[in-house]
Design a protein that fits this description.
Distance between the termini of chain A: 47 Å
Number of helices of chain A: 18
Shape of chain A: globular
Number of strands of chain A: 13
Structural class of chain A: alpha/beta
Strand content of chain A: 5-15%
Strand order of the largest sheet of chain A: 1-6-5-2-3-4
Helix content of chain A: 40-55%
Radius of gyration of chain A: 24 Å
Oligomer: homodimer
């Protein structure tokens, strides 16, 4: 724990910003376990790899012997959206919160060590706070400074309403840091303002201020937009091994290195060596295999990665797919997806939907290597599959 | 109670604004006692005539059989100024609040009927509110609308800090109206925004909205600035009869009519008759006597007014003061006031302070008709006295 330089190197990797690094160094030198806090929304326990960037960073601290505080913001979750404008922010019941917390634990403990992770709910202290104390908390920050927050200033500038309680939520989040006496708080770059409120409140409460660390937002499978469930470009941490592996194989070589940086537990040195190998002529697909194996192992246990790789190779490589497969993006008008026959026609793999139906009937259509006999099959939004008609008509179909 | 026209006439008198008058008419037609709310700061129970403009209006409702709710905002008073920036807004203890409430009652029950007045403390319900409910309350109003309040928009515009809890106080005041199901709320013109917040919250809580009434700010003895203790131009409701009477005699004839409108319980018809009498040649001073007698009677009991008038006449008129007395304004550098000798010299009644001391020693100096023998006497800030040196050197000295 006293190798501060080594610790810093690991902490800095893939980190967007550290405020203030000099303070972090001082804290690392204390020689005691630091309290490293990260806050999570109690409503969405369905994690994807994008969320794990932050959790991986918590793991780095944990491996150095520090205490990770996984904070579930259930207090605000149980209030919901009091303006009633958002149907998705209905108040959660205590039972839902507990169930969601269990689901969180199931997912995060694939990355974090349960023995070194403290799971907290901020309702524990927030429910004790009366309205007078809430008012005092609100007195600790000014309207002008709150309006400096990016989304607030944009909404205020464009005359979109901001309800006053929205000004209280960053203060609640900051107060959590006061109660927990957090040494470090980690969040996405979009959380930077709120994390800094925690710093400010700790100062006002006479505490040593937490170091604020932001991690980047992970790009989704398309390599452009942020990984997100609603964009369909995500890999869920609970997805079956073959799906997870297959999706990882679909990313570009450039994105692969980004994923190595943000998702792999390989050391910086190991990743550098892999890059060198590719420069020296190694097939990038084989390196992508290594990433896929690591990820599947992480979420499905040791051995699951190799099995997924073998299944992938079995399905695709033994089928002697060409090295270059054209990708065709199809947009689905229907939220239930697009019928396979229609997709084949639109991608130009068949001349008409009738030909598609005939080919399916004859057993001449494969999707991801598997023969299709259901002529009503639909390809869902977000699907990315390799479709074959006969031997030679092949394309990757992406439903967007 | 069903003479709605007559009721309206009395309610409108000296009222600045009624929002919305049509709703008030509807409420008056209900035939049940209306709940008429007015809120008071728990820190300043030392009332002057300026405060009584509002209390008089409450009395008008009370005389019509409505229920007056005298609301003491002790919840916020017990929080004080949480930013700690204002030394004058220290948190009040429960004991202080109760003591202040008693002092309030002593003063307001000279105007209101105790049997028809409900005294409430908003801590009763606000202390029950937890932070979650406070957040929900805060969700009911937007930042933009709150920033429309005059003082907020000025401060925001000139980059003066507004602490976020200041946005919560108008909501607390509005919530009081919800809890009390107020039909009418009366306040000073400076309270209009807050009173309207109450209307809005009642709407959101599905209640019939309170009618908002504002009463004007009473001018002080100078006839220009608002009556205020700190400006020294006030008449306290607990001032001794002779002081109260003397101060009222010092106001201008124009201000006298304003005071008749806002302070006298005489009917509009009676006041009109008095005006006519003056136009017909009656000495305005005699009419001012009637105002003085009414006011002193109100705060010191029937008969006290005439006694004060007689004492006044005894002291001044029998001393054959000239009709026109020059007023000299002196500014006091020292908060303890200005030595009488210095004041006499600055007003030109003596040539030097040594002459002043000599005249005092010889018994030739009178203040408000009384011989002065203390050469160290000081005239306090806000004092307005008639000083005489010998028989002919006379001036009214106002210490500002």
């Amino acid at each position: 724990m006293h190798d501060v330089e080594g610790a810093l190197r690991a902490i800095r990797r893939g980190t967007e910003e550290i405020l203030v690094e000099a303070e972090l160094i001082e804290k690392l030198k204390l020689g005691r376990p630091l309290r490293v806090k990260a806050g999570f929304d109690p409503t969405a326990p369905d994690l994807h790899l994008g969320h794990t960037v932050l959790i991986n960073k918590l793991r780095v601290f944990q491996e150095m012997g520090h205490e990770v505080i996984f904070l579930i913001g259930d207090f605000t979750g149980m209030i919901g959206d009091p303006t009633g404008k958002s149907a998705t922010r209905k108040p959660l019941t205590r039972e839902q919160v507990i169930e969601n917390a269990r689901s969180y634990e199931e997912q995060i403990f694939k990355i974090l060590d349960p023995a070194k992770t403290r799971v907290e709910f901020n309702s524990r202290w927030m429910n004790e706070l009366d309205s007078g104390e809430m008012i005092k908390l609100a007195s600790r920050y000014t309207v002008a400074r709150m309006l400096e927050r990016d989304d607030f200033s944009k909404r205020y500038g464009s005359q979109q309403p901001i309800a006053i309680h929205e000004f209280l939520y960053p203060l609640v989040q900051g107060y959590d840091s006061v109660v927990l006496e957090a040494d470090v708080e980690i969040g996405g770059t979009d959380q930077k303002f709120n994390l800094l409120v925690g710093r400010e409140l700790q100062r006002q409460y006479g505490q040593s201020q937490q170091v604020v660390m932001t991690v980047p937002i992970l790009e989704g499978l398309d390599g452009v937009q942020k990984m997100s469930k609603s964009l369909g470009n995500y890999i869920g941490v609970s997805e079956p091994p073959n799906d997870m592996f297959g999706k990882l194989m679909s990313i570009s070589d450039m994105l692969m290195w980004r994923y190595f940086d943000l998702l792999s537990f390989r050391t910086v040195e190991e990743v550098t060596r892999l890059k060198q190998q590719v420069e020296d002529g190694r097939n990038p697909r084989d390196v992508k295999f290594e990433l896929g194996v690591e990820m599947v192992d992480r979420f499905h246990g040791a051995g699951a990665g190799l099995a997924a790789r073998d299944a992938f190779v079995e399905r695709f490589q033994k089928g002697q797919l060409p090295d270059e497969i054209e990708t065709v993006k199809l947009s689905s008008q229907d939220e239930n997806g697009i019928p396979l026959a229609v997709a084949l026609k639109e991608a130009g793999l068949v001349a008409s939907t009738s030909e598609a139906y005939r080919m399916i009937q004859q057993g001449g259509v494969r999707v991801d290597g598997e023969r299709i006999d259901d002529r009503g099959l639909k390809l869902c939004m977000g699907a990315s599959v390799i479709a074959q008609v006969g031997k030679r008509r092949i394309a990757r179909l992406e439903i967007v």
